[in-house]
Amino acid sequence: MKHHTMKLILQGPNASESAARRVAELAGASAFNAIAAHVFRCDGVSDSPELRESVIGACLASGMDAAFVPTNMQLADFKLVVMDMDSTLITIECIDEIADMHGLKSEVAAVTEAAMRGDLEFRDSLQRRVALLAGLDASALDKVFEERLELTLGAHEMLHAMKAAGLRTVLVSGGFTYFTERLGKELELDITRANLLEVVGGKLTGRVIGDIVDADAKKAMVESQSAALGVPTSAAIVIGDGANDLQMMSVAGLSVAFRAKPVVQAKANVALNFSGLDGVLNLFR
Questions:
Q1: Is 211 among the residues known to form the active site?
Q2: Does the active-site annotation cover 137?
Q3: What pLDDT sits at residue 2?
Q4: 16, 80, 133, 135: which is deepest, by most CB within 10 A?
């Protein structure tokens, strides 16, 4: 069986040229170039599962991300970027931080973690977690947004470049509209979709209104947004970290596992464990 030759992008805040050169040799690269600070491109790499495993293992040990991508892949090949929110575009899991305001962070975070690993069905896990928030003052959402929500390193740069290249920016989250809508305005995103928390008399009821945004809904979002642009889903870049992102990743032209659970890293085209979100841009260099 003939293996495709690809380019291998090595990067990370602590990626050194000497470590990258060792990986290039291991990968049998025909050419090696430093293309930016802490970013290296190796060309003419044969892609096989065995080689991937040894290259990724060597990179993890030296704090580098390794990405095997088609040699001629360009940002112009893509028309939309679809992102998860919690632990992807932002550094926190909003529901865990809301729960912290209710003194229930450990209980809720344990369920979040199990759902993201794929051990629990997302829909049930979300309903269970939201139910624990019943009675909490809705002002807790403001507090989380103002005091705890932080954009992931490199998010601004990545979004700026995607918009400049004419890609539609889509945020789809199993989290809450309270956060996606504010981020959408702040970051000038084209489309946002998430779950609506029910608030009555200024307090959370512990329920979600309407359809739950689960793995199926995320995948449907990629399909509908691609269709709206008149392009196949292979024109989508999808970035996520949890098991509920796997379905939308499976239809994308490029799937990026960002600081993701093992089940997600195993299935995505590319995994970024050390780089910021701007590391996605280096895949096209």
A1: no
A2: no
A3: 47
A4: 80
Query: Which pLDDT belongs to residue 1?
Result: 37
| Cβ neighbours of 266 (radius 10 Å) | 11
- The catalytic residue among 65, 84, 245, 278 is 84
- Three-state DSSP at 266 gives helix
Domains of the chain (ranges, CATH numbers): 1-72 (3.30.70.260), 75-285 (3.40.50.1000)
Cβ density class 163-201: b for 16+ within 10 Å, e for less: beeebbbbbbbbbbbbbbbebbeebebebbbbbbbebee
The residue to which tokens 């642009």 are assigned: 229
Note the pLDDT of residue 3: 59
Kindly give the parts of the chain with pLDDT less than 50: 1-2
Q: Which residues pair with 271 in a beta bridge?
A: 257
Helix (H, G, I), strand (E, B) or coil at 194: strand
